[in-house]
Amino acid sequence: MNDIDLIHYMLLMNIPAYVFLACLLHIAFRLG
């Protein structure tokens, strides 16, 4: 794998974490 493939792989693996954080922030904002 070259660097660009590695970057794309890392970004794809991080998408669920970003979605999860966004959901937590949204819930905290609504409850806050």
Automatic annotation (TrEMBL):
It comes from the Bacteria. This is Uncharacterized protein. Keywords: Membrane, Transmembrane, Transmembrane helix. It comes from Staphylococcus aureus (strain NCTC 8325 / PS 47). The chain crosses the membrane at residues 6-29.
